[in-house]
Amino acid sequence: MIIIGAKGHAKELFDLLDNQQLANATFFDNLSQDCGDALFGKIILKNFEQAEAQLLKEPGFALGIGGVFSRFFLYSKFLGLNGRPISVIASNAVISQSAVLGLGLNIMRFAFVSASTQVGDGCLINAGASVHHDSKIGKFVEISPGAKVLGNCSVGDFTTIGANATLLPKITLGSNVVVAAGAVVTKDVPDNCLVAGVPAVVKKLRKMPQIIF
């Protein structure tokens, strides 16, 4: 399988792979100038031609980068190269049997995904983050370490929830929202904005790139 990325998050993802996945793992990084030719003894592929050749041998790929739009664009690119998205989930993450999980997820150590939740494709639920009962998480959402999404919340696509932020129950976040680290969201948040503070308020508006699923 190919781990997309060769920096910090890719290293953490590598630690979660099982022995069979490790045997066939390679990394992909076509941008960084300082990552060398290998990481943890595994080759770093440097362009899409090399990635496509590797996918012909083994089609699995996993997202090993942060940033919701970077994750989406590379996920889409690798699908176009006939790749198959793989979810990497820590063995000590707690995930309800009634949770509905999308494809290509990263669910990191000590994360908690509760009953009757939905998590869309390409999401990153980072270490110690929690998604509580009946919440719905859109596609390519990043929930940072220690963040809490309490019960019956709805989070739109391409939204980022910062480290140790909290969404109180029944909150709706729009798409392309950024919740700053440590914020406490007590009211619904519309699309395309950044919120911060306790309680969280809108600090600025954001542009939404043209996205086609």
Walk me through this protein's architecture:
The protein is of the alpha/beta class and 213 residues long. The chain has two domains: 2-85, Rossmann fold (3-Layer(aba) Sandwich), CATH 3.40.50; 89-196, Hexapeptide repeat proteins (UDP N-Acetylglucosamine Acyltransferase, domain 1), CATH 2.160.10.10. Helices cover 17% and strands 29% of the residues. It contains four helices and 25 strands. It has helices spanning 8-16, 19-23, 48-57, 68-80, and strands at residues 2-4, 26-28, 38-39, 42-45, 60-63, 84-85, 88-89, 94-95, 100-101, 106-107, 112-113, 118-119, 124-125, 130-131, 136-137, 142-143, 148-149, 154-155, 160-161, 166-167, 172-173, 178-179, 184-185, 193-196, 201-205. It has an eight-stranded mixed beta sheet, with no helix packed on it. A six-stranded mixed beta sheet has the order 3-4-2-1-5-6, sandwiched between helices. The chain has a six-stranded parallel beta sheet with strand order 8-11-14-17-20-23, with no helix packed on it. Strand 24 and strand 25 form a beta hairpin. The longest helix has 13 residues, at 68-80. It is globular, with a radius of gyration of 17 Å. The two termini are 24 Å apart. The model has no long low-confidence stretch (mean pLDDT 95).
